[in-house]
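Deliverable D5.2: sample structural annotation.
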Amino acid sequence: MRYKDFDGTIEELIGLKLREIEKQENVKILHAIESGSRAWGFASPDSDYDVRFLYVRPMKYYLSLEDKKDFIDWELDDTLDINGWDLSKALRHFHKSNATLYEWSNSPIVYHTTPEWDKVNRVSRDYFSCKSAMYHYYGTAKKNYYAYLLEDLVKYKKYFYVLRPILACKWIEKKKCPPPVLFCELISEVLEDEMKPVVDRLLQAKKKMVEAEKGERIEELNRYISDNLAVFKRKLEVMEDDRRSDWEQLNEVFMEIIRK
């Protein structure tokens, strides 16, 4: 169905797409959410919809010996970006304390969910690693800072791709748990008071810009970013590895779900 022929809301369209996936791929979708800038709370006027989902297949699929595809890429265009992970892949990545999966778990925009997902979500919390997650966010901030924010003119959306992971590091250090997805919650809890007006002005400017638009580099933010990158680099070097090694709870929830 072409979008111009669809008269419903974007949420209804996404629901239709999810049902198409279940039917054509013979899967059950356990959880489907919005990822990226819309979930973070700072989408541009022309931002697309980044739909991510976790699914499970019938039990016999997991019992055969052939190599198995563990993801579904369903749609990618100017409006929709839809893809998902198999339950087995998701649980393996929860064992690694994959920060992206915890973001999917915490997304404030949920298109579909199930009781089975609630069980996965509860178990996954016990496998969260502060050091692993902090490494992820520190690396994301560092990569985007040096790639996008050192020129005289920069895309303001890239500031959020750096500030948000830095604040996520601060949240993890303070709370010892997965950070919230909404940028405003991170600002409220861990951003220093003197920086809040600077970030608020950035937010207001970003909301008026299209994705590709640029503005003058903001020196105060660049100094803040550079200082915090240095701080978290030192902290990560001395943090103890807190990853959990056993698989028991993940195996149990996997077997419980596929038996159904």
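Annotation notes: The chain is about 55% helix and 15% strand. Residues 103 and 181 are 6 Å apart (CA to CA).
The annotation will be released with the project's public dataset once the embargo ends.
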